[in-house]
Design brief:
The protein has eleven helices and no strands. It is mainly alpha-helical. It has one domain. α9 runs antiparallel to α10.
Length: 280
């Protein structure tokens, strides 16, 4: 890896983690297209930390309020009609499906798409292209059936569970964590901005968990001095681009539909499949 590659991958991670076009797919596609080497475990940790910093800093005030509300609900043993108390517990409950799926199936799904220390096969890239297109179709349908009438304050327990189950599907490269959760939120009648906001908040515990696991693995393997610069650059790039993309998407969805992301996903899917077929 060189410095330019670290910056590019950091920006891509931060942007595609929150825009519903799949960060995992883009972090596979770009090195695959340009024949870049695997950036390694240390850089993976940096990218997770960068996107975590982005979502924690952007919603800093909300996180403080949610933490206080959650603690108060435990101390008083009461949730009641307090919106922040309910949201705090919905985020915890909504995280459970993704955490369980990751613990049980992440390594198996990775093996299906990418053998350890081996390049991605054409078959795996075609499969990922199909997944990218299918999630685009799901988002397209969700926009058509959505009522866009429910604010985040109207979120119910069943909504949190269903959106959490959708988040678990992001284990498959090409699905997109934000894409799956925003699609589920729209299908459940949430306003676009509300669906995106809950999606971003729900992503924080999963990103933190994945980052912690990778950091643990890194602590056991160690990090060379040459990786420190790339670690810092990747983390900073991901944090800045992630923060800006959260801000952009929340504003964008107040006035626009998600159709532009649907079209992008379909075009990307076609591109990936065609290139994979040509490479044989």
């Amino acid at each position: 890896m060189n410095l330019l590659q670290a910056i590019v991958l950091g920006i891509v991670q931060g942007a595609t983690e929150f825009i519903p076009i799949s960060s995992s797919a883009h972090l596979i596609i770009i090195p695959w297209l340009f024949d870049w080497d695997d950036p390694g475990l240390a850089f993976d940790v940096a990218l997770h930390l960068g996107t975590l910093v982005a979502v924690l800093s952007f919603f800093a005030r909300e996180w403080v309020n949610l933490f206080r509300a959650g603690v108060a609900s435990i101390v008083e043993r009461k949730i009641g009609d307090d919106v922040e108390r309910r949201l705090a517990w919905y985020l915890i409950i909504g995280t459970i499906p993704g955490a369980l799926a990751g613990a049980l199936f992440e390594s198996k799904i990775e093996e299906l798409f990418h053998a350890p220390n081996a390049p991605h096969t054409s078959g795996a890239m075609i499969a990922m292209g199909i997944i990218i297109a299918l999630l685009g179709a799901a988002l397209f349908v969700a926009e058509r059936i959505a009522r866009h009438t429910r604010a985040l304050s109207h979120l119910a327990l069943k909504d949190a569970i269903l959106i959490g189950c959708a988040q678990a599907l992001a284990l498959f490269p090409g699905v997109s964590r934000s894409g799956a959760t925003i699609t589920a939120g729209l299908a459940l009648g949430l306003e676009r901005a509300a669906a995106a906001r809950f999606s971003f908040l729900l992503s924080a515990p999963i990103i933190a968990g994945a980052g912690a696991k990778s950091a643990y693995d890194l602590a056991r393997a160690g990090m060379s001095s040459s990786e420190v610069l790339f670690f810092a650059v990747g983390m900073l790039s991901a944090a800045i681009s992630g923060y800006l993309c959260i801000k952009f998407l929340l504003r964008f969805l107040q006035r626009h539909s998600t159709d532009v992301f649907v079209v992008y996903r379909w075009l990307l899917a076609v591109f990936v499949i065609v290139v994979a077929v040509m490479r044989g």
